[in-house]
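Q: Hi! New to this. If I give you a protein sequence and the SMILES for zinc ion, can you show me the bound structure?
A: Yes, paste them in.
Q: Okay, here:
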Amino acid sequence: MTTSILEEWHEQRKNFNPSNPASINHMHEFKEKVKLHEQTEGNLRILVDIYCMLRMYSEAYKIFTSVMDLGNKKDQKKFGSIKYYIDNPNCVKPLYPCKIREDKTIKTVIPKFKYLPDPVQSKIFETEEVVTCDCCEQEVDVYYTGGIYAIEEAEYLCPTCIHSGAAAKKYDGSFQQDLINDETVVNANFTEEIMCRTPGYVSWQGNNWMAHCSDYCAFIGYVGWSELVELDITEQFENYTGFSTEELSESLMNNGHHQGYLFQCLQCGRYVLYSDFS
Ligand SMILES: [Zn+2]
Ligand SMILES: [Zn+2]
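A: Thanks. Here is the predicted structure of the protein with zinc ion bound:
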């Protein structure tokens, strides 16, 4: 192993940010560079770590099983954690290279969604690429990849096709799996808007939209306990998770196995928390 690769690896590892597409791409570039180097055990172990960081566990597994020493406690532990993801592929989404837009100014018009005050900020819509909407076939730079509950799959939908109801109509589907606490919602238009004209959040177990008072809530964002602390609302949300606040403070993590979904009532302004597990 040359010193430079090892040094570069330490640098890459320190600066890696899995939620930044540019950082993911840098890690892929570095991976290709390491692959071109001599296949020493040291270099192969770096490759294993890179694949783990990129959550590409089958690739990590293939290489690790060729270099590991199961007499070594550290290797045993590492083998166990890689094996876990091989056996539970649904628990993890690999970080593949991303297409990055040069120009970050959003051109696509985003209509106003009643139940999504800020759909880009709350990560309902993505803006990393330019894609073609499966419904209107227009090129857009703001799009939804959460799909629709329908027989046919929709890969990309634009905000306008969702907002107008065109996408739900075309696919004869809806964006929510279930509605929670909706017994007091009597206005059928509200229900139609949430089911057919509001994109769902991406969840582990299905999009279940919260209602409060006599309307559906606005989706504020994906949260873990630390996000609730940051918002300073740990004492003042309505808890629909089925867990005590103490349990939540220990297990709720954004992008983790116990994921929180934060809503806010459009009528009384209360925060409402829902969660599910991977
Ligand atoms: Zn469209
Ligand atoms: Zn309310």
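A: Strands lie at 131-132, 139-140, 178-180, 208-212, 215-216, 218-223, 237-239, 258-264, 271-277. Let me know if you'd like me to explain how to read the tokens.
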